[in-house]
Design goal:
Arc Repressor Mutant, subunit A; 2 domains; about 190 residues; HTH-type_TetR-like_transc_reg; globular; mainly alpha
C-alpha cells in the first residue's frame, strides 16, 4: 500500500468507527451524517469522497465479501457437493465476523434492525446469490437457464446464512456463528447433501 492509500484507508476506518459508535448508541435513523463527520473530525465533503450515504458506511464493510465468496466457491474441490462447497465458501463471511466479533455483532444488529440497512444488505446479497448460482452452475456443468438447482442451492444457502446470523445476533454471539451456520445447512441440506 502506498502512503496515500494508507491515509485513505485510515480516514475510511475512522469514519466507519465513528459511525458505528454513534449508530450503536443512538440508532440508525437518529444518527446524522453531520454527527458522524464531527465524531471523526472530518468534513462532509470528505465523508462524501468515501461514501455515498450513511447506509454505505455500514454496508461497505461487507461489500468486498461477495467477490471473495465467489472466488472461494470456485476454489473448492470439484468432488464436494454443491451444498458443501457453498458452506465452506461462507467462511469468507464467518471469518470476517470472527476476526472482530464485537464490531461484527454491532454491525449485524444494526443491519438486521434497520429497514434501510436491511434493504441495502439484501440489494448486495441479490448480486452475491446470482454470482454463487453462476459458479455452482459452472461446477455442476449445467445450464442455469434450464436447471434450477444452482440458483436454488445459492438461495437456500443464503437463507441458511441469514438465519444463522440472526440467531448469532439474538444470542449476543454466545454460540459461534459457524456452529449456527453448520446447524442451518444440516437442516436444509441434510447430512447427505453436505
Amino acid at each position: 500500500m502506498t502512503l496515500a492509500e494508507r491515509k485513505r484507508q485510515l480516514v475510511r476506518d475512522e469514519l466507519t468507527e465513528a459511525a458505528l459508535k454513534l449508530l450503536a448508541s443512538q440508532g440508525f435513523e437518529e444518527t446524522t451524517i453531520d454527527q458522524i463527520v464531527a465524531a471523526a473530525g472530518v468534513s462532509r465533503r470528505t465523508f462524501f469522497r468515501y461514501f455515498r450515504s450513511k447506509e454505505d458506511v455500514i454496508i461497505e464493510f461487507l461489500g468486498h465479501l461477495g467477490t471473495k465468496l465467489r472466488d472461494a466457491l470456485a476454489a473448492r474441490p470439484a468432488a464436494e457437493t454443491p451444498a458443501r462447497a457453498l458452506r465452506e465458501a461462507f467462511a469468507v463471511f464467518t471469518d470476517t465476523y470472527h476476526h472482530n466479533p464485537e464490531k461484527s455483532i454491532r454491525l449485524a444488529r444494526l443491519t438486521l434492525g434497520s429497514p434501510a440497512l436491511m434493504a441495502r444488505y439484501l440489494e448486495r446479497q441479490t448480486q452475491w446469490r446470482a454470482d454463487a448460482g453462476a459458479e455452482l452452475a459452472r461446477r455442476m456443468k449445467v445450464d442455469p437457464a434450464t436447471d434450477l438447482r444452482p440458483r436454488l442451492t445459492a438461495a437456500v444457502g443464503f437463507a441458511a446464512f441469514d438465519t444463522a446470523l440472526t440467531c448469532w445476533v439474538d444470542g449476543d454471539g454466545d454460540q459461534d456463528l459457524n456452529t449456527w451456520l453448520d446447524k442451518a445447512f444440516r437442516i436444509v441440506f441434510g447430512e447427505t447433501g453436505l
